[in-house]
Amino acid sequence: MDYSRLDLVRRSATPLELDVVESYANGRITRRQFIKHATVIGLSTPAIAAVLAACSGGATPTQAPAGSPGASAGGSQSAAPAGGTIRVATQRPVSIDPVLMQDLSGYGMVAQSFEYLATLNKTGDDIDKGLATDWTTNDDGSVWTFKLREGVTWMADGSPFTADDVVATMGRLVEAGNSGLKGIIDDKSTKAVDPTTVEFTLISPNGNFPYLVSVFNSQSVITPKDYATGTTLDAKPNGTGAWKIESYNASTGATFSRNPTWWGGTTPLDSLEFVFFDAVGPQVTAYQGGQVDCIVQFDVLSGEPLLTDANTNVIATRAATHRQIWMRVDTGQFVKKEVRQALALSLDRPKMIEQLFKGRADLGNDHVIAPIYPYFDDSVPQRTRDIEKAKSLLAAAGTPNISATLHAGQLLEIPDLAQLVQSQAAEAGFDLTLAVEALDPFYANAWCPAEPKDPPCSGAAELGIVDYGHRATPDVYLNAALKSKGIWNSSQYASAEFDAAFGEFQAAIGVDAQKAACKKIETILNEDVAVALPYWYNYLAGSSKAYEGIYSSALGQMFFSSTAKIA
Amino acid sequence: MAVISPTVDIRSERAQARRESRAVLFRKPGFVVGLVILGMWAFLAIAGQAITPYDPFNDFATGHQPPGPEHLFGTDRLGRDVLSRVMVGARDVLIVAPLAAILGVTAGSLLGLIMGYYRGLVDDLVSRIVEAFLSLPVILVALLTLVVLGTSTLVVVLVVGILFTPIVARTVRAAVQTERQLDYVTAAKLRGESGLYIMAREIFPNVLGPIVVELTVRFGFAIFTVATLSFLGVGIQPPSPDWGLSVSEEYSNMISGKWWPTFFPALAIASCIVAINLIADALQSVASE
Amino acid sequence: MTRWLLRRLVLSLITLWLLATLVFIITNVLPNDIGRTILGPFAPQESVDALNERLGTNDPLLEQYLRSMRSLVTFDFGNSFQSGQPVLPTILAAIGRSGVLAAFALALTIPIAIIAGLYAGRHRGQPSDRAIVLFGLTFSSIPEFVIGTFLVVVVGVQLGLLPVLATPPPRAGILDTARFLLMPALAMAIVYFGYIARMTRAGTIEVLESDYIRTATMKGLTTTQTIRRHVLRNALVPTVAVIGVQIGYLFGGIIGVEKIFNYNGMGQLMLFAAQRKDIPVLTAGVIVIGIVYMLATLAADLIIAWMNPRARLETH
Fold first, then answer.
1. Each residue's pLDDT tens digit, A1-45
2. How many angstroms separate the CA of residue A236 from the nearest CA in chain C?
3. Which residue of C has its CA nearest to A437?
4. DSSP H/E element including A398
5. How far apart are alpha carbons B98 and B105 in whole angstroms?
6. A453 and C152: CB-CB below 8 Å?
7. pLDDT bucket at C72, cuts 50 / 70 / 90
8. Chain B residue with minimal CA distance to C137?
9. Contacts of B134 in chain C (CB under 8 A)
10. What is the pLDDT of residues A434-493, one digit of tens each?
11. Are A444 and A490 in contact (CB under 8 A)?
């Protein structure tokens, strides 16, 4: 450990930055977690390099840790563009309104033209400078200052990108109740200090703020100040990004062409061709038939052949995508904690992961802190299948047999998961009847009916499975699904203890404090089992090896700005 | 001299003809083959899980094993034995389809009888409505209705049954119109019998032939329709091993070479419908001789 | 002739009106929150209420019905709930695409089925007849989506002979388009072969056994051409009738085939609209399909009338 070098950094670090550096220096977090967290905090790259060098004996760190298999970074951006196009298969987008969109396909479309303050890094697992080149915070993380990139223009009319656009965008997001920013900022939080500086005064301190205005909060793309909510990308093509939308047909697909005025340079490819599908199966068929070169997202069961194909780059990202098996804690047969624990104990999670994902998933432990988060605390024992214990718990609760209806929506592997749950829980004494329906009626009738409005989702079914997409921080899961009167709280869980622990987490500055808060959260949730959470599965995307330089987030955003055709 | 009512003569003649037809029927190879196949599926539907080699719902082995000595038809994506699921898959289809067919034929026959007998305004009016229904592809209307009302078994039976009614009505109407012109009907009317009586006791037994043929044809179509609806996701729901549903759940895996979870249920669908068509065909040729 | 045509037209209009009413009843029978369906489960309640107000979904049913009927008469089908695009152009484009596929399928199957049916009818009872009947029977029992799947796997993926996605690239020539559409068209053609061939066979048998053919033969009219013309004309009457009706069933099969081959025709559009409860698209789609069916049966009846003047009096 080269303390002299370390001290150089320590001396100029804010308390927040210092905490991260110390955690790493003392081995409490891994190198990967340090780099990730330091970037969030706003520690400059030279400082990070210095710390890593100091602690590892001189080796200069690479920009990012070893990437996930297949995700090749780079491509010759400085060389003359090689030209050509790439055909991409994607699920048909539901909406390409930057503020209101909710589906991954929409995110992917919009992200081609519009950009984020903090964008995706080249290995697809963290954030990097985007429309903001620098961000710093005050001592306690309650005020964040973002320095905006200069020389960026809007592709529709060439007008300059300024702080006013950011302010207007944030205002729209607050008004729309954006789930990532709700309770973090309000309509007075964002201020344009000067045309290239924006200051955010948060409602309460939050150490993870940059993530909430990054690619991981998909709707937080920056749109021009006059881009009213309700405008869709195809209605008013614009953006600061690498690609300009040329055509959009909701039935068949969309095409984008290179934006010659993009600040990032000239893209190697000339254009992108998106083809819309309604299911993954046909996408795989089309890919294997050579009619598309790339698939934005596929699941293991439909895309099995791709996993072993020699000509395919599989981009596998560990993600926080998961399913929650909610149980009503206030009424019905699952009121008693023992019953809920019994259901959780009847699940054979490793087998589920093997059957549904061929092993490409992390174990879930009935709480919403995913193992990929740096503040995940692994001290809570992993729950495993124990039929005897489940039976005894049910007996202790006075209900050795429970008959209930398990609701689920038709999405990816959820109907199969429901069948596995039904079968596995039967051994413990649960007699479950399946009710699988299309997503729209499922959301509207079983998961979160509009009535009664208060508390939200109080008309939810007794037992059901709902999907949650990947988020870079667990704030949304904790807030919406589990906090008292959360907007997506189907289980009607209301625990003062949990709410307090959640508050602790949000206020926590520094990895150690966050980890301590998470330990409390994990323990409480694992004990109460308001939702059973069996797995966190990997996000899978694939492309032909004829192309290189594709990277993707776990939220449907695939980036082609450095993609080149090599074959 | 006793006057033998012409009705009695015609009736006993027809009864004799029916007995002869039955004998001819059983001599047709198509009919016998069809009956055997259908009988096999009916037996499997009734016997159900009692005779399957594995539990079709809860027995999970390794996923996507190719057909082999342990699993004759291989395993599906979750590791369930395909043979067992195909055997039990007969049950849902052979409950839903016949019910829908019977509903359609009953309602259609009633409608056809009324339309054919009363003619005039009643016929014209109802015919318009019938034509409106006929100009819609069954699948599309079924799809629409099932999406709106939800996909319970009851709704599937009702929807498919109601959608078959106009087609049956048309056929029965044509047959009734032919019968209506015959003497025995005029005789009955002269006797003062009510319309209801004439339709029920006089005409109906004589259009029974075409009705039975329609029933078998509709049965085949019902299986076809329910399989397609399940394939589209609005028919029978998981975890049922229904054949159409199985195909829809596994067809994308055919690309990667896992043909068996799709092939065998598809074969089952085909064999069932072919069997029924063979029976219907035989009935039709006997009826027209 | 004109009177008959006029009568048919009036009856068709009445039928179309009944169709529209039927769709309205189906889509309004259950209370459903249109605004919620469009905006999705995560949108704030205020936006949903505002949208419902704007769309007029809270108005009394009769008012909505009248509005719906009025818009149909003016061919104003409104905008799709899903995409916000005007409905009519979307539907027309989709019908066009499905029409091309259906026409291709019929072009493949009709000539072959008729020839097979005629041959089977003339050689009744012989092994070739039985083979044709059995073949037709078997394949018309297999749903189109099943045959489509087999074709995709064997011809598309394993042998790589034909493209697996049915949508040809824009500006493709006729031959190229044919190459892309061959597999889905084949899937449907194989299924419909059975119906048409058997109908032709039945018609042929009936004609061959009829009096006037025997008379013609006895009279010495052995010219193959004359017999063929007579036989053809009359044997094909039930066939044409069947083809007219099949146009309606074609749309059922097309939904399955379009799903497998990811072809953006009416089938996919309707399936997707049904799942998303996109009522303007569904209503317009059903009406348009109804019109197509009516035109098809009208054309069939006209052809029959031309082929067999006597039959004209019997159709109504």
1. 666 666 666 666 665 566 677 767 766 677 767 776 666 666 666
2. 14
3. C275
4. none
5. 10
6. no
7. confident
8. B274
9. 248
10. 988 877 778 878 898 877 878 888 889 999 999 888 887 898 899 889 999 888 899 999
11. no
CB pair distance less than 8 Å for C255 and B140 = yes
**CB spacing of C149 vs B273 below 8 angstroms:** no
Whole-number Å distance between alpha carbons of B202 and B212: 17
Closest Cβ opposite residue A419 in set B64, B151, B239:
B239
Q: If you measure CA to CA, which chain C residue comes closest to A442?
A: C41
- Flag whether residue B4 sits within 8 Å of chain A, measured between CB atoms: no
Q: Rounded to two decimals, what is the model's pTM?
A: 0.75
Of A422, A413, A442, A447, the closest CA to residue A535 belongs to A413
Cα–Cα–Cα angle for C245, C249, C255, nearest 5°?
155
- List the single best residue of C132, C153, C262 to mutate versus B (max B Cβ within 10 A): C153
Which other chains touch chain A, taking contact as 3+ CB pairs less than 8 Å apart? Answer: B, C
b/e per residue B184-203 (b: at least 16 CB within 10 A): bbeebeeeebeeeebbeebb
**Is A177 in the C-facing interface, judged by CB distances under 8 Å?**
yes
Q: Using an 8 Å Cβ cutoff, are B208 and B82 in contact?
A: no
Contact B140 C270 (CB under 8 A): yes
Q: Identify the H or E element spanning A540.
A: strand A535-544
Of A288, A426, A438, the CB nearest to B255: A288
Burial class of residue B2 (count of CB atoms within 10 Å of its CB; 0-12, 13-18, 19+): exposed
Query: Which chain A residues have a beta carbon less than 8 Å from that of C278?
Result: none
Residue A235 CB neighbour total at 10 angstroms: 11
Mutate to test the interface with B, among C28, C138, C139, C145 (most CBs of B within 10 A): C145
User: A-B interface: how many C-beta pairs under 8 angstroms?
Assistant: 59
CA angle A429, A344, B78 (to 5 degrees): 80
Q: Identify the closest residue of chain C to B148 by CA–CA distance.
A: C27
Cβ <8 Å between C275 and A440: yes
Whole-number Å distance between alpha carbons of B88 and C166: 35
CA distances from B76 to B90, B106, B232 (A): 17, 39, 19
Q: Report the mean per-residue pLDDT for chain A.
A: 85
CA distance A409 to B238: 11
Does C102 lie at the interface with B, CB-CB under 8 angstroms? Answer: no
DSSP string, B131-177: HHHHTS-HHHHHHHHHHHH---HHHHHHHHHHHHHHHHHHHHHHHHH
Q: pLDDT-derived band of residue C217, with 50, 70 and 90 as boundaries?
A: low
**Which residues in chain A have their CB less than 8 angstroms from residue B258's CB?**
304
Q: Which is more confident, A79 or B137?
A: B137
Is A479's Cβ below 8 Å from some Cβ in C?
no
Q: Give the span between the Cα atoms of C228 and A189, in whole angstroms.
A: 88
How far apart (Å, rounded) are the C-alpha atoms in residues A192 and C148?
Answer: 59
A227, A113 Cβ separation under 8 angstroms: no
Tokens 């189906």 correspond to C26
Nearest in space to A156 (alpha carbons), one of A114, A203, A98: A114
Contact A498, A483 (CB under 8 A): yes
**Among A113-127, A409-423, C40-54, which is the least confidently predicted range?**
C40-54
Return the residue matching tokens 């009829």: C210
Residue A461 tokens, joined: 């079914």
φ, ψ dihedrals at A305, nearest 5°: -60, -30
A71-101: string of b/e by CB count within 10 Å (b at 16+)?
bbbebeeeeeeeeebbbbbbbbbbbbbbbbb
Are β-strands A463-468 and A402-409 bridged in parallel, bridged antiparallel, or unpaired? Answer: parallel
Q: In this model, does residue A326 exceed pLDDT 80? A: yes
Three-state secondary structure call for residue A258: strand
